[in-house]
Amino acid sequence: MTYTELVTEVSNYLENTFPTDVMNTMIKQAEQRIYNTVQLASLRKNMTGTLSANNKYLSAPGDFLSAYSLAVIDSNGDYLYLLNKDVNFIREAYPSSSSSGLPKHYA
Question: Is the pLDDT of residue 54 over 90?
Fold first, then answer.
């Protein structure tokens, strides 16, 4: 599909015509959303980090895009996969930053 065909299809579907800059923004946003939603195996990367008692953050690699999954390895060597939650959920569920123990969630 060419750019002209795409603009025509979008305009027909939405029953509206848009200025070129608005159409270009919509196309870029759609491309970005597709890119972020489709998890390509070639973009996956494994990383090992170290958690410390008084640091609530884990460093990410420089080319980090988004987390596919996150696990903590306990003292027995077992992987405990964490649940991805919104930051607001974590702050409400664990209001005290002094909480300790193995994490169950990440954001």
Answer: no
